[in-house]
Amino acid sequence: MSTAILTGPPVAGSPLEADLRTLGFDVRTADDPASVAELVAGAPAQERIAVVDPRFVGHLHALRLALTDPRFPAAAVPGALTAQPEARPALARAVGRIPVGAGTAHLTDVLTETLTESLDRDAVGLHRVELGSLVATVALTPAQREEARQAVEAVDGEAVRLRTAVKSRDGFFTTFCISPYSRYLARWCARRGLTPNQVTTASLLTALIAAGCAATGTRGGFVAAGFLLLFSFVLDCTDGQLARYSLQYSTLGAWLDATFDRAKEYAYYAGLALGAARGGDDVWALALGAMVLQTCRHVVDFSFNEANHDATANTSPTAALSDKLDSVGWTVWARRMIVLPIGERWAMIAVLTALTTPRIVFYALLVGCALAACYTTAGRVLRSLTRRARRTDRAARALADLADSGPLAELIAGRARGRGRTGSYLAPVMAFLSAAVILVWVIFEDDPASWLTVGVAVCSALLAGAAVSRPLKGALDWLVPPLFRVGEYTTILVLAARSDAPGALPAAFGLVAAVAYHHYDTVYRIRGGTGAPPRWLVRATGGAEGRILVVTVLAAALSPSGFTIALTALAVVLALLVLIESIRFWVSSQAPAVHDEGEPA
Asked: Under a CB-based contact definition with an 8 Å cutoff, are residues 74 and 87 in contact?
């Protein structure tokens, strides 16, 4: 139970007290700032405190947005404000600063506004709710009260609540084929007490059942898998809409939503590969290739966004052209569809699964994702080359964390530090050469499972160390992490594929999945403002260059069957290591509540 303090006697006939109790508040009354201060000080430390003007007139949902949203330490609308435990000291100070005596009536007559302005000056992270068509006001006279009531009645607050439960920016398929009805499913869930985490878990279970159906290798199984995958996506949209509809945001929910999408999609790839194998068609290389391509696309998105998150003078002619195109209706949807976002991608996978074969599904997926990757990456390179942005130390740190450099690259970078100029193209060139050297060798060498490959991997590590030897503040330095991912993931894929050992590719699939999870986990920690995973974890996993070196040593030292066993063991060890640390972090009190409104494709 939270406490709501009315700053004066209730207004006769006002539903305000009932509305506050509906929102879970214990309503108290205070006649002056001293009484407010006493109630604030006397409430349990873990409670949320709301201060509400009894003359408030507005929609219930306006109050809900201001007083119950857990993402903000303090929030306000005209006539109402709230402070969570971390902002309560600032609220107590604000109340204590209000003078008493002659000439101060204007401060206490609209006490909530006085306190709101004070909290805003204290920089406690006060969130001023954007009301849109919702009404929230303080009616000082009967005429104003009647006018405000009419304004409330003129706007359907529940319709606004439903509409705003949907992301403001989403893909074409999601916007027009899913959200028109999934928002009502979200409301149905809210009215039955279901939580977003429960819906997220149901979406995961549905996708895993879909993967199991695909793994049967039968036409009936493929048809069922397609339908279940689409239903899983409906639930995936519903969980976020439920969170926005009922304001049930949580740290655990943010983590589940962020990671389960990838788990669902990649588990489905594995199910398709298993189903194809039952029919005598080995498509594990295609499945792993699809996972590599999709993950690398995301790393491009993450790196570019982090590099430019807080850059100054961050403009370019290319960005201006992009904004201009976004002002033309049809180009908005065309540009959103061409990047093959999750809605379009899952719809394509589901339909092709039901109607064709896993091989065709993966061919279409690889071609579509490759075209999307070329489009987005080329656009971002052009933006980076034409803008004159000054990137911050925070951006450089984020890119270094995303690079996931291990002990070997750190040692090399330390020896090379001071050489080269920050802001040049040295870092992306070295990262490109690091990936190109190892990939060209393992692809074109007659026998890549040799000790010569280990030597090439060492050269690749030297180049990787040189790439991160200076702060990553150059125009194209955001390319360093995705280039490292391409080098690492593709090396594992090619070595497994060329080993000709039964089970090598499924083992490589598991290994890349474990490493990709570690990289996604790093992204969401950085987005939450808590920084990358601890250095001991990065060192324990070897870093990108260390894992490449380990895999090449295993390929050279072991027989094909032994290589498969070693890849499997490595995948299990890394998965346990990163999962245990990730779960520990995300269920801890230090974890951020990250709620993205625009997930990457």
From this structure: yes
Which strand (E) or helix (H) includes residue 414? helix 407-416
Type of residue found at 297 = R
Is the pTM higher than 0.85? The answer reads yes
Say how far apart CA 477 and CA 489 lie, in whole Å: 20
Residue among 127, 26, 135, 6 at smallest CA distance from 70: 127
CB neighbours of residue 17 within 10 Å: 17
| Strand ranges, E, within 11-135 | 25-29, 49-52, 56-58, 74-77, 80-83, 126-128
Q: Which residues are CB-contacts of 504 (< 8 A; sequence separation ≥ 6)?
A: 496, 497, 560, 563, 564, 567
**Assigned token pair, 119:** 């909290």
- How many other CB atoms sit within 10 Å of the CB of residue 170? 21
pLDDT in tens, 87-145: 999 999 999 888 765 555 555 678 899 999 999 999 898 999 999 999 999 998 999 99
Rounded to an integer, what is the distance from CA 500 to the centroid of its chain?
37
Residue 387 vs residues 306, 326, 419: alpha-carbon distances, Å:
16, 19, 25
Question: Under 8 Å CB-to-CB from 142, ≥6 apart: which residues?
Answer: none
* Total Cβ atoms within 10 A of residue 547: 22
Strand partners, 49: 3, 83
SS3 call for 227: helix
Angle at which helix 480-498 crosses helix 393-403, to 10 degrees, equals 0
Judge whether 468 and 400 are in contact, CB under 8 Å: yes
* pLDDT under 70: residue ranges of the chain: 100-108, 311-330, 416-423, 589-601
Which residue in 195, 170, 185 sits closest to 256, CA to CA? 195
Q: Among 373, 388, 351, 228, which residue's Cα sits nearest to residue 297?
A: 373
* CA angle centred on 419, ends 306 and 486, rounded to 5°: 45
Six-digit token string for 296: 């690398």
Q: How far apart are CA 260 and CA 262, in angstroms?
A: 5
